[in-house]
Amino acid sequence: MVRHSKLDVNSQYIGRPLPIGVTQWLGIRYAAPPVGDLRFAPPQDPANDPEPKQANEVSNIEPGRARTSEDCLFLDVYAPTWATSESKLPVFVFIQGGGFNGNTNPNLNGTGLIAASNNSIVFVTFNYRVGPYGFLTDGRQITANNGLRDQRKALHWVHIHIAKFGGDPAHVVIGGASAGAASVALHLMAYGGRDDALFNAAAAGSVSFGTMLTARESVYQYNNLLVRLDCVGHDPLACLRSKSASELQKKSAKSPYPGAMHAPLFMWGPVIDGEIITKLPYEAFRGGKFLKVPVIFGDDTNGGTVFAPDKTSTRSESNRWLMDQFPHLTINQLTRLSELYPNSNQTMCPEKGCWWRQLSNIYGEMRYMCPGLFLNAAFARHGVEASYAYRWNVEDSEEMAAGLGVPHTVEVGAIFGPDNIQEMAPESYHSNGTNADAVQRIQGHWARFIKTLNPNHPQSDISTHWETWGERPWSRLLFDTGGATRMEKIDSGLRERCEYLASIGIALHQ
């Protein structure tokens, strides 16, 4: 049976039922094409289209990758085939990562997570504008944070239409990884913590607190783009809109932050615009300016290894690279970081890479792990009982041999299942692999949290029970190699490092 979903008066999408009891709708337009006069504009409602459309093909993503186009504002829905408009199933909306400069997790397949829920949830994922398309602003004509506005538009779409697919608009959990997890945090603090009834829980991995500028501070990016595209002396916005996507893509190269020597890993990103984002994340969450909902935050053991340059060979190179990412770092702060993160490989020097792991440890904790733990503590401190922390420590032999340890966001391949992501998941995550049980374990926790806002099975024993931050402060659930789990106390060294990083976070514009 082919299922139709009528989204508005004149639009209809035809889903594809799969043999596993799930129906998928791929490539549903949630906003008008952001092209022509809508390039660099907030997302607008799509036009009605009376012709029924087969929703069975993955959609375009942002320019720069395969199957790309600026016309990229589409979403995918996966729902149990048995569900009806009266089912009111819990909904999980996943925001993909990519540093706000790309789309790292496009077209995720939700069937694995739905299966883990016993076919009792609805899953939504979507594309949004990144790079200059989503985060360019001149502080005047070009509205800031259009990429976040796209995300918000998708969440509004879910609120209005998800019941047609069997979902409950009053039970929506948002999630994400890396920049997607940063987006989750930003939606929690959006508009000063205003509740627009778009979601009522969040589960995010590797929350990212990067350098955040104000809209005015980011105008150098706009000015550089005008010069590169020869738009000086013309109507700037009209000139920018007249350029082809290829021209814009080629000329939108990263520039150093003011005061830095080299371009950062991720230049384009959200800014403080006084509207969606009113404060720096460390400031907003410390002050309680966020939605008080159940949350899961966590990270991988070695979140910095895929980012830090593996040829880093001196302390000077390590410090310079850190200052390119966080240009407000002071000499005193760098000195303190050297004390907190001694180089255990220094006896190797001056071999290439002898400072790589020291640098990756700093960056992984400064940008990802410590912000996540800070959020767990903030939610508990401001009265949210259901604040759950985790560490993914599931070792894959190939990643370990490459020196990556347990790298950034690798658990996405476990949460969705190793066959359901475009990026290759570790071989050990597959059904015959040594970590197949770990995949099953995290999928179970995620599915239960989506369904009940509690990741624990009602009959779980003490060895598998996931305690909240309030029950056991500075503790988290450890997902270990092979599938074992246990609560671990966060050691005093990590706690000291995270408390120091939180103390300088606002000064670093995080």
TrEMBL record:
SUPFAM superfamilies: alpha/beta-Hydrolases. Residues 39-62 are annotated as: Disordered. GO terms for molecular function: hydrolase activity. InterPro entries: AB_hydrolase_fold, CarbesteraseB, Carboxylesterase_B_AS, Carboxylesterase_B_CS, Type-B_Carboxylest/Lipase. It comes from the Eukaryota. Pfam families: COesterase. Its EC number is 3.1.1.-. The keyword Hydrolase applies. It is an enzyme of class 3 (hydrolase). The keyword Hydrolase applies. PROSITE patterns: CARBOXYLESTERASE_B_1 (PS00122), CARBOXYLESTERASE_B_2 (PS00941). Residues 21-473 form the Carboxylesterase type B domain. Keywords: Hydrolase. Belongs to the type-B carboxylesterase/lipase family. This is Carboxylic ester hydrolase.
